[in-house]
Amino acid sequence: MAVRAETARLRTVGVREVAVAGIVLGCFAFVLSLPPITARSPWWPALAGIPAIGAGIWATTRGARRLGWFAVSAGILGIALGVLATNASSGHLKSVVSWTPLFATMFVFATPLTFAALGGMFSERSGVVNIGLEGMMLTGAFFAVLGTDKLGNWALGILCAVVAGGLMALIHAFVSIQLRADQIVSGTAINFLALGVTGYFFIQVYGDQGIPGSISQVPSVNIPGANHLGAIGRIFGHLNLMIWFAFAMLILSYIVMFRTPIGLRIRAVGEHPRAADTVGISVYGIRYAAVVVSGMLAALGGAYLSIGYVGSFNENMTAGRGFIGLAALIFGKWRPFGAFAAALLFGFSDALSLRFQQPWPSQAVLFRALPYVLTLIAVAGVIGRSIPPAASGRPYRKQ
Amino acid sequence: MDEGPVLELRGITKQFPGVLANDHIDFDLRDGEVHALLGENGAGKSTLMNIVYGLYSADEGEIVIKGEPVKLSSPHDAIDRGIGMVHQHFMLIPVMTVTENIVLATEPHTAGVLLDYSGARQRVLEISKRFNFAIDPDAKIQNITVGQQQRVEILKALYRNADILILDEPTAVLTPQEATELFAILKDLVAQGLSIIFISHKLNEVLEIADRITVLRRGKRVETVPRAGATEAGLARSMVGREVLLRVDKGPAHPGDRLLQVEDLRVIDDRGLEVVRGVSFDVRAGEIVGIAGVDGNGQTELIDGLAGLHKVASGRVTIGGKELTGASAHIRLDEGLGHIPEDRQRRGLVLEFSLAENIALHDYDKPPFSRWGWLNPRRVIERARQLLREFDVRGGGPQTLAGALSGGNQQKVVVAREVSRNPRVLIAAQPTRGLDVGAIEFVHKRLVAERDGGRAVLLVSLELDEILSLSDRILVIYEGQIVGEFTPDVGEEQLGIAMTGGRRSEAAA
Amino acid sequence: MSEGPRDPELNDEPEILDTEPKPPEPLAADPTAYAPSVAHRLALLQRAGGIVTPLLTAVLAFFMGGVVVAATGHNPWKVYKGIVSGTGLPWFIHFGHHHIDIPFTNHHVFFWWDTSVVNNDAYNLQQMLIIATTLTLTGLAVAFAFRCGLFNIGGQGQYVIGVITGLWVGTNFSGMGHVPHVLFAVVVASLAGALWAAIAGFLKATTGAHEVITTIMLNWIAYWLGSWAFGQGGPLQNSFNPSLPVSNDVVPSAKLWPFWGNPALQALHIGFFVAITALVAFWFTLNRTTLGYEVRAVGFNPEAARYGGISVRKNYIITMAIAGGFAGLAGVMDMLGYQYRFGVLDVQTSNIGFIGIAVALLGRNKAIGVGLSAVLFASLLYGTSTRSLNSDVFPTALASNLTWMIQALVLLFIGADVLILYVWHARQRLVRWIRAQWPESIQPTGTG
Question: Do A207 and C419 touch (CB under 8 A)?
Answer without folding.
Answer: no
